[in-house]
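Internal ticket #5521
Category: modeling
Description: The requester needs a full-assembly model to guide mutagenesis choices. All entity lines are attached below as received. Residue total reported by intake: 738.
Assigned to: D.W.
Attached entities:
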Amino acid sequence: MTQPLEHFHPFIPAGGVGSRLWPLSRADAPKFLLDLTGSGSSLLRATYERLAPLTKDPVMVVTGRGHAGAVSQQLPELSAKDLVLEPSPRDSAAAIGLACMLLERRDPGCVVGSFAADHVIEPASVFQEAVVQAVTAARTGKIVTIGIQPSSPSTGFGYIKADGDLGIEGASSVRGVEQFVEKPDEDTARAYVASGDYLWNAGMFVAPASLMLEHLEANEPELFQGLRTIADAWGTVRQDQVMSRVWESLPKTAIDYAVAEPAAAAGDVAVVPGTFNWDDVGDFAAMSRLNHVGESDDVAVLGENTRVLVDNSSGIVVSDTGRVVALIGVEDIVVVDTPDALLVTTREHAQSVKETVNSLKASGDLDVL
Amino acid sequence: MTQPLEHFHPFIPAGGVGSRLWPLSRADAPKFLLDLTGSGSSLLRATYERLAPLTKDPVMVVTGRGHAGAVSQQLPELSAKDLVLEPSPRDSAAAIGLACMLLERRDPGCVVGSFAADHVIEPASVFQEAVVQAVTAARTGKIVTIGIQPSSPSTGFGYIKADGDLGIEGASSVRGVEQFVEKPDEDTARAYVASGDYLWNAGMFVAPASLMLEHLEANEPELFQGLRTIADAWGTVRQDQVMSRVWESLPKTAIDYAVAEPAAAAGDVAVVPGTFNWDDVGDFAAMSRLNHVGESDDVAVLGENTRVLVDNSSGIVVSDTGRVVALIGVEDIVVVDTPDALLVTTREHAQSVKETVNSLKASGDLDVL
């Protein structure tokens, strides 16, 4: 059992619709609010429960204003002061930067941790041990990312090139980071995995809030100044008004460009290789995987009261309509059945769902997005 | 333009759910009530309109009591006396036998014609010319079937083995019938088609009503007696009461066994080779065909207000829900989308739909049948 840490503030940036999971995911039902594993918990709730035991302080959530109600319902123990609401999506640097700044003011010198709201991680205990090592390493003045031991030469993720062991006491598995690299082609990915020095970048960071902000100020001074204006008004009667006005003017950029990559170049980044099972549930192929479809004639069924009739078929059916779904002679099929939209594809084509969503956007079919 | 014939009474036995078209077809929405060609007319309505110009008399319809309302709506010109309602399905010999008996009593010595309610035939004029020849031949004392020139060595139909020309004046294409043969295997079907002497049996009969009844009495005396009891009460206040009581006791058998095959053995059957296009719309593969899906990347869409998004897919979408349907990377797919049931299969597996319906019956899911 992990002991709760002091002056460690995990937070969860909960943004992103997850449009590869349309029509299950929607603008008003983003991926992190869905139960994609049949566990009974949303991905956000599961993330929160993994983090809460690690700290004596509250876990903070940064999400869109439109999700305030749904997030509060999922996390009844979350107090309003720990729910930071974005007026609109402005990419990860703004969301993570604001959390760092608010937490640094709340608890100067603290270590923060940023963890995506929509990943599946098991078992929690192995993840938590990795976070404890990351916090220990962060206290030595490092931005510590938790990388994922690759289970395949995926071309869908960026990679982290690890250096030698840093020899930090109480954080024996922490290694230096030479650089972050973009999504590779297949040959490169194979070479990465074979070398043993590359980890998947899952976007998890543990660091002194002040060090995150130092790099943010150096690389994105305009963004940093805007966040400072917001933080100055935070907790006053002007909070919402200033947030609304300033937020829209903030530069849109990813935390990778604003902080992680330049910090790695400066030698300020370390990595804990995560040995837990990790999945970003990026598409319906991943959902099939996570719902334990293995046998060739198996169909995974997600959804309450769904009656599925299977004849010579395999794949996944996700339904929340209560209709009878009959599959006959369809292999590796993906059927997602919602009240106003129906998707039929295959596991192989699961990645193309995003383009369909873009087509719907372009054709003005906004009612089903 | 065909001249309307005298003493010729076409009738339409409208039974059969067409369960290979589930979930489009249902117990209360049988195939003959559906518009399967996107023409705006149900198959029944199209059948009626093909037959009406051939006669100076009304066209009669024999259907289940449960369909009285729907049939009347489809055929507003049909008078009640020409709508014969079966208390329950008792196979084709009972339905066709009763029509023959009622029409023989109405117009002694008449020729009747029995035409399925759920076939697609084009052009109507070529069909009508065949019927005129069949009526001419029938008046010489023959049961005349209209066979279909096979367009492929189908194993899904029974065949008619034709004999030599009968040399009937005004019916030059009429040939004798040696025998009816059951659905063949593939090699046999190929030999049949190559010989030029075999036609598909589409279940269309034109004959003196009295000759039909003569064979029925000889082969199914119990059925014949029952029908006589019903006919005796017809048009009296006891009609419905006698119908309800006697109908349930009638032997269930097909007109092929009760009349056509023994009549052929007795040398009483002739055939007109039909050169019109004919399709029994037996499954969703047929529906794709009829809705002109030819190109490899084409998707046929049937249903009002259906928005279909196609990416690298082919097949057919039938929807009456108004939902957005997105197909990604699925070839030869069949998607049938109804408010309470969804079918996903392929054109190749279209024939297996009937087994799924049987599974649903066995599992007690009667609400969607």
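Resolution: model delivered.
Comment from assignee: Residues 91-106 of chain B form the longest helix (16 residues).
Ticket closed.
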